[in-house]
Structures are given as C-alpha cells and as structure tokens.
Amino acid sequence: MHLFFESEIQERLYLSEEESRHAVKVLRLGTGDAIRIIDGKGSLYEAEIVNPDPRRCSVQIRSLEQEKPRSYSIHLAITPTKDLDRIEWMLEKCVEVGVASVTFILTKRTDERYWKGKSIHLERLHKIAVSAMKQSLSWTLPTVEGLIPWKDFLKQVSPDSQKFIAHLEDDDRKLLKSEIIPEKNYVVLIGPEGDFTASEIEEAKQAGFQPVSLGTRRLRTETAGLIAVHTFDLVNQ
Q1: The pTM is what?
Q2: In terms of DSSP bridges, do strands 185-190 and 3-5 run parallel, antiparallel, or are they unpaired?
Q3: For residue range 86-96, what is the model confidence (pLDDT) as tens digits?
Q4: Could you give all domains of the chain from N- to C-terminal order, each with its CATH number?
Q5: Which residue, 227, 197, 236, 217, is CA-closest to 72?
Q6: Nearest to 228 by CA among 208, 213, 207
C-alpha cells in the first residue's frame, strides 16, 4: 500500500500539494483507493481517498496505529562539510539507521573555512529526512537544526544524556561501542575534517562529554557521523 507523509493529517484530512500531486498524477490513485499516511510523530493512519484533487487530495481516516517508542534516542551534533551533497547523503543514511536528532554546529574551524555568514538549507534537508523516514518505514521524523554556535550547543544539551565527543587528538579515548550504556539518550559530537581544536575538546570534556574513538581508520566527517549513529543503534538491538 502506498505511504504518504502529512504532519497534520488528523486536523486537515487532506494531503499537501506535493503529496496530492504524487498520489493523483504519478500513482493515478482515485476515489476509494486505500493509502497509508504517517505524520512524523509516531502515528500511522489507514485512510481512503475521498476526492482525488491533485492540489488538495482529501481523505477519510479508517484506523490509527501508534509506533512503539524506542527506549533510547540518538542525537548527532556534527559540523557541516563544504560539499552539501555529502551533508545530504549523511542525513539520509542516518535517518534510515535511526537518528532522532541532527544538529549542525559551528566550530572554530568550520566557521573560518566556509560557513561564516552562510546557512544550512533546512527546507531541503527536511524533505530528505521525510523521504528517508518513508524509505525505512519509520513513523517518526527526526529533528534537523542548524547552524548553532559551538558554545551555545554545549549549554543546551540535557544533563541526563550520555555524551561523547569523537576526535583524533592524543587523549584517554575509549572505543565508542565499549562505552555505550544501552537504553539511554545519547549525544555525540563529530568535528570537521581538521578536527576539533584542543580548546574545544577541553570545553566539551568540562561539559560532561566523554572522549571516544570510532576506530583506527581516519574517517571523513559525514562517514564518522553515520558510523557513530549506527554504533548506537547496533548496541541497542
């Protein structure tokens, strides 16, 4: 059965113009056809098309099912790369694996290199996250935020989370997978390709972040982000 996304479907009872066009023009669905709708908040609706308008396809809800909440959550805080395609690829894969939140952070080196005065295209990233959510058959849409200055982000992290900073400096770093406590809320910091500065690492440690390694290989920023998210998910399987 075809799957659609509409965040306010219970109140509106119609699909967005983009989803309406896909349902009516691309899939050729008509009156009486059954569809499924997810709202990105953990709900799945079984519905039936009432009026196949390609700009505002109205539906009637037949049943509602709630997704079982996870016993853990993964928050990835990562510096954006200069190549936007790599950011989009990483976000897509992290959503498929099970990330709950992605925040793009501005560190000293990312700010100096490229991103000063620029902004992340959150609308496009939202669409990518929605597509990945549907692909992975999840009913909950991760949050995507950015760009947030380094120190501001450190201040807003919940003290109840298990917090990690992955970096390459000589330090008493443990392997991430050996330090994860199952069924917790996690926050992991991933730096730019030039890595975090020594002062940033110290600031993170003072804020309760534990230094960790993702393995012996030197990884690109977006690869490190995906590996970290996947590691949290695997430990909790």
Answers
A1: 0.92
A2: unpaired
A3: 999 999 999 99
A4: 3-66 (2.40.240.20), 73-235 (3.40.1280.10)
A5: 236
A6: 213
